[in-house]
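Hi L.,

As promised, VRR-NUC domain protein:
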Amino acid sequence: MINWEQFKTEEEALAYIMAEKGINATDARKYLQRNLPKESYYQDKIIKHIRKIFPLSVVWKEAAGAYSRQGIPDVTAVINGRYYGFEVKRPFVGVLSKIQEQTIKRIRAAGGRAYVVTYPAEVTELLREEIKA
């Protein structure tokens, strides 16, 4: 399995795929789409990571479906009394929807903290202030 975190850009990932698989750019892009883990894989990693570094936090994955409010970040955490929302996207191919973008802005305007992330390391960086507390 490819460690996608080693690539800083989509171009790096595509170049690696083309070299490893001996395929052209179009086929490399298709390979990337097919072989990246699903968003739920990254959500699970982030939830476990937050629970590990903040054992007293409350962390959950938001339910999605017909009766759920659209645009709410995938992972919610309350850390040291502060609300955090993490919209999790697949690397290189994940795209923020308009409603997700608007919801993140509304959360921030209300004093919450909301971010778009892919990897646990990004979450650690965003929570550096909380880690020091």
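Residues 14 and 29 are 7 Å apart (CA to CA).

Thanks again for sending the construct details.

K.
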